[in-house]
Amino acid sequence: MDIEQFRKEGYKAIDAICEYYAGLEQRPVVAQVEPGYLSKLVPNEVPEKGEPFPSIAADFQRLILPGITSWQHPSFFAYFPSNATFEGMLADLYASSVTNPGFNWACSPACTELESVVMDWAAKMLGLDEAFLVQSGVGGGVIQTSASDSALVAIVAARSAFLHAHPNVSPSDLLIYGTSQTHSLGAKAALILGLNFKALEVYPTYQYGLRGSTLQKAILEDRQKGKHPFVLIATLGTTSTGAIDCMPEIGPIAKEAGLWMHVDAAWAGITLSCPEYREKAYLKDINLHADSFCTNFHKWGLTNFDLSALWVRSRTKLTDALDVTPAFLRTKQSDAGMVIDYRNWQLSLGRKFRSIKLWFVLRSYGVEGLRAHIRKSVALATHFADFVQESSIFELCTPQSFALAVFRLAPKDVETPLTQDQLNGLNRTLFHKIAARSDITITQTDVLGMFCLRLAVGAQRTEERHIRRAWEIISTAGVEVWADYQAGKPVPVENGTH
Amino acid sequence: MDIEQFRKEGYKAIDAICEYYAGLEQRPVVAQVEPGYLSKLVPNEVPEKGEPFPSIAADFQRLILPGITSWQHPSFFAYFPSNATFEGMLADLYASSVTNPGFNWACSPACTELESVVMDWAAKMLGLDEAFLVQSGVGGGVIQTSASDSALVAIVAARSAFLHAHPNVSPSDLLIYGTSQTHSLGAKAALILGLNFKALEVYPTYQYGLRGSTLQKAILEDRQKGKHPFVLIATLGTTSTGAIDCMPEIGPIAKEAGLWMHVDAAWAGITLSCPEYREKAYLKDINLHADSFCTNFHKWGLTNFDLSALWVRSRTKLTDALDVTPAFLRTKQSDAGMVIDYRNWQLSLGRKFRSIKLWFVLRSYGVEGLRAHIRKSVALATHFADFVQESSIFELCTPQSFALAVFRLAPKDVETPLTQDQLNGLNRTLFHKIAARSDITITQTDVLGMFCLRLAVGAQRTEERHIRRAWEIISTAGVEVWADYQAGKPVPVENGTH
Q1: ipTM of this predicted complex?
Q2: How confident is the prediction for chain B on average, in pLDDT?
Q3: Interhelix angle B86-97/A86-97, nearest 10 degrees
Q4: Domain with CATH 3.90.1150.170 in chain B
C-alpha cells in the first residue's frame, strides 16, 4: 500500500468507525456468534499472493464486527467498563504510525519523556503524594499493560527488597497477602512467581473490606509458623462488590510489619480525580502508607485499552529488582543517569508508545470532563440502586460502591424465608434469563456463597433512559422468575455461569 | 468529540501520517533532542478545561515528532528493525475502535477466534510442526507483548511441569540455561522468578552458537552439584551477532535430560517463511525438539509493535501453570471446553485485540510479499557485507547472519598487528563518529571482549542506494579514524556507549 492508497483506505476506515458508532445503540450488545464461528468462514492458510485491501477491510465488517461484544454500547453493564474514546483512537493511530519498541530513552525520547509528563499529570490529578511523582526524583509512574502486570511488578520489587533486607529467608516461606475478594491477579502473581498467596478473611459487617485486626492476627500467626508475609495487595474497589479495604487500619500495620502495601485500584482509582470521593477512597492513608498504587485508565478513565498506571514510592526498588542492562542496550544518557529507561520499570524489554493516548485524553477532556464522566456514572448507578431498594422483590447485596450495584432477587414479606440455596437458585435462573438477551449485558458474582448480579455503569454513552430500560428488563424478569417459583416450577440447580 | 468531529480529525490524522511518510527520508533518523526537552515545553498539570482537539493534534507534530527516532527511515540500521506498515496502522485503528479487554472468549469472540486462526496461518507459513497448531487441539499459538513475555511464559510453564514431575526439588536448585549470547530476557526472567540463570559458554569457532558438548557437560556438572537445569533458552539469531544455537545437537540432549527447550527466534524466526533458510535455521530440529517457539512479527515481520508470536507444543502445560479462574470470570463456553481463554496462556488478565494486525498484514502481503521483504533485506545486508570484505581496513567479525552484518575497523597489512585493546579503541572512536550523525544510525556490540559495529537491515523502505550511502559514511569515517591513529592522535579509552 503506497501513501495515496493509505490516505484513501484511512479515510474509509475513519468513515467505517463513524458508521459503527452512529449505529451502536441499534447493535446487539453481546456478540451473537457460536464458538468456532470464524474458522468456518476464513481460509485455512495465509494466501500466497497479497489481496487488495478493500476486501480485507470489508471482511472486518463482515466477519469480525459480528463477533465483537460492544463494550461501548450504552447498555453494557458487565464486568467493569472498558472505555474507548475517539481521542484515544486517534492517539493509538498516531502511536502506531511511529511504531518503535520503546525499550530505552534513545529508542524515541518522546515516548519516555511524555510518559513521565503524563504520569505526573495523572498523579497530581488523583491527588497522589508528591513522592509518587517522577519529578520527585525518588518515586515515579510507569505505564503497564494491565493491573495484573502492575501488581506483578510491585510484588517482584517487594520480594527483592525484602530478601535484600532478610537474606536468610527462604522464598518458600514468603507470603503474599490479599483477601478472599482480591482480584485473581494476586493468586496469579503467586503462581507465576512460585510463591504462596494467602487470602485473608473479610466480612459482610465491613462490606468485604479488610480490617486491621484481621491483618494483625494473620501476621502474628504466620510469623509464629515461620512464614514471612512481605507484601499486601490492598484493594480500592474489588471486582466482585467494589469493596474497599480499610486503609487507615491496615496501612500502619503493614508499614510497622515491613510489608510492601500495593494498592490495586484498577477500577475505582480514577474516582480520586473527584475531591468528594477522596475520603471514602482513603486517599490520605494511601498517600501515607502505600508503596505502590495502580489504576487502569483503560477501564473507567476514557482511555482505550491498554493503559494501566502504576506509581511507586521508590524507583530504585523497581530497578534494583528489574535492571539487567546488557552492553548492547547501554546508552550514554542512561549511563549518566540523565534519563529513565522504562524497561527497568517493567517485566518486558519492548514497550508501546501508550502515553500519547493518556495525553490526548487528559487534554481533550480536562479534569472537568473526566470528573463529569465519573460523576455521571455514579449518579446513574445510584438511580439503579434506588430502583432496587424500592422494589419488594429485589435487594442490594452490598451498599452501592461508586458506579457498581450488586443485587439479587430476594423477595420480602414471604411466609417462609428462602434459604441461601433457594435464593441462589432463583438468581441463577434470573441471570440466565438476562444473559440470553442480546440488548443488555450484566455479570454474576459469588459473594462468600451468595449468588449475586452486578450492574456496573461507566460506558460513555449510557444515559438515564438506558438505566430505566435496564431496570425494566431485570425487574420484569425477576417478577417472572419469582412467579414461576411460587407456581412450583422447578428452579435449575446447576452452577450455571455465563 | 462527536462523530462528525472525529471524521474530520481522523482524516486530518491520516493526512498527517501521509505527510510524515512522504518526507521520511528527509528527516533525521535519530531524534535531535536532549534529555528533558519535553518537560520544558508542556504545562505542569492536566488542564482544568478540555482543549480543542486541533491544538492537541498540532502538538503531536510540534512537540512529539521531533523526539521520535524514525525506525522506518531507510537509513535506520540500529538494533533490529521494528517494522510499521500502513496495513498494520489501519488494523491498530480498527482494533482501538472496538477496544475491549479480551480476557476471555466471551469478551469479544472475534478476538479469540481470529487469534487462533492467524496463529495457525503463521505457524503453517513458517513450517512449524502441526503439533504447534491450535487446530491440533494439543499445542497452539498465542500473541504476547514481547519476546521477554513469551520467554517468561514458557519458563513459568516449564518450571511448573518440572516441579510437578519432581515435587521434592527446591526452586533454589533450579537452573535456567542460556548462553552468554542469550538476550537479556533470560537473565531478566530469572530475576523476576527468583531463579538462577546460567550462561553457557559459546565460541567463535562455532560462530557463538551453543554446541551439544557444552550443554551435555553443563548438565552433568550441575547435576553433580545437586542443581536442576529445567529449561534451555535456545536462540535462532542472537541480538549481538545473529548466532544460531546448534539445534540438531542440543535438541536431543535437552529432550533426553528433560529440559524444556524454548526457541527464542524473536528476530530471525520470520526467515522460516522462506524455504531456502529453513535448513540454516534448523527448522527440522526445532520441529522435533522445541517445546516452545517465539518470533516477533513486530520486528522484521511487517507488523506494527506489539506482536510477539509464541507457540507451545502442549497447551495444558501453559494452563496448568497459569489458570486461576475465579467465579466472576467463568463462562459457559470455557466451562464446556469449547473455547480458548487466552488469559490462561499469558501473564496478564487483560489483553489487546492484536491478531487483527497480523491478519491484515498477512493477507495484504501474502506469503510472497513477506518473503520478498525478507529476501530483499538479506540481499541488501549481503551487499554491505561485500563492501566490508572488499575493504582493506574493515573486517566482518562474524559471518553475515541473515540481514545482520557485524563488523569492525581492523586494518590489514600493518607492520605491527594491533592489540584487541587498540582495535577496541579505534572502533569506539569510529562508533562515536557515526553516532554523532543524524542521517544514519547503527549500534555497537561487545562480542566476548571485541567491540564491534552492527548494521541490521530490515526497514521496508531501505534500497540499495541507502546501503551504498551507509558504506560511504562508515568507510570514510573509518579511513579518517585510521589516519588519525597512524598520525599519532590519541584514541579515547573510555568505555563509551550510545
Answers
A1: 0.96
A2: 95
A3: 160
A4: 363-486
Whether residue B497 is predicted with pLDDT greater than 60 in this model: the reply is no
**Chain A residues 83-122 within an 8 A CB cutoff of chain B:** 83-90, 92-102, 105-111, 113-114, 116-117, 120-122
Domain with CATH 3.90.1150.170 in chain A: 366-486
CATH of domain B100-353: 3.40.640.10
Q: Is-above-0.80 flag for pTM?
A: yes
CATH class belonging to B363-486: alpha beta
Check whether B494 has a pLDDT greater than 60.
no
A466-481: pLDDT as tens digits: 999 999 999 999 999 9
| A interface test, pick of B97, B153, B303, B432 with most A CB neighbours within 10 Å | B97
Cite the residue boundaries of each domain of chain B with CATH code 3.40.640.10. 100-353
Quickly state the pLDDT bin for B390 (edges 50, 70, 90): very high
Residue of B nearest to A448 (CA): B327
Q: Does B9 touch chain A (CB under 8 A)?
A: yes
Among A35, A53, A84, select the one facing B96 at the smallest CB separation: A84
What rounded mean pLDDT belongs to chain A? 95
Task: Write out residues 341-400 of B within 8 Å (CB-CB) of A.
Answer: 347-352, 356, 359-360, 362-369
The CATH architecture one would assign to domain A366-486 is: Alpha-Beta Complex (3.90)
CB within 8 Å of A3: residues ≥ 6 apart: B18, B21, B22, B86
So what's the pLDDT on residue B282? 98
The dihedral sign for the CA sequence B236, B237, B238, B239: negative
Q: What's the CATH number of domain A3-68, 1.20.1340.10, 2.30.130.10, 1.10.8.420, 1.10.3720.10?
A: 1.20.1340.10
Per-residue pLDDT at A297 exceeds 90: yes
Condensed to tens digits (0 to 9), the pLDDT of residues A213-254 reads 999 999 999 999 999 999 999 999 999 999 999 999 999 999
The C-alpha atoms of residue A296 and residue A311 are separated, in whole angstroms, by 11
Q: Looking at chain B from residue 289 to 308, which residues have their Cβ under 8 Å from any Cβ of chain A?
A: 298, 304-306
Please give the class, per CATH, of domain A100-352: alpha beta
pLDDT at B438: 95
Query: Are residues A117 and B38, on separate chains, in Cβ contact within 8 Å?
Result: yes
Render B290-310 in DSSP notation, one character per residue. -SEEEEEHHHHSS--S--EEE
The whole-number average pLDDT for the span A373-396 is 98
Report which of A438, A413, A414, A443 is spatially closest to residue A427, judged by C-alpha positions.
A443
Residue A333 contacts B where some CB pair is shorter than 8 Å:
yes
Average pLDDT over residues A90-112: 94
User: B103 and A149 in contact (C-beta within 8 Å)?
Assistant: no
Ranges of CATH 1.20.1340.10 domains, chain A: 3-68
Cell of B245: 544455537
pLDDT digits (tens, 9 = 90+) for B208-253: 999 999 999 999 999 999 999 999 999 999 999 999 999 999 999 9
- B11 close to A (CB below 8 A): yes
Cα angle A303, A306, A307 (rounded to 5 degrees) comes to 65
- Is the bond preceding residue A222 a cis peptide, omega within 30 degrees? no
Q: Specify the pLDDT at position A496.
A: 43
Of the listed ranges A29-43, A67-81, B484-498, the least confidently predicted one is B484-498
CB contact under 8 A, A110 and B68: yes
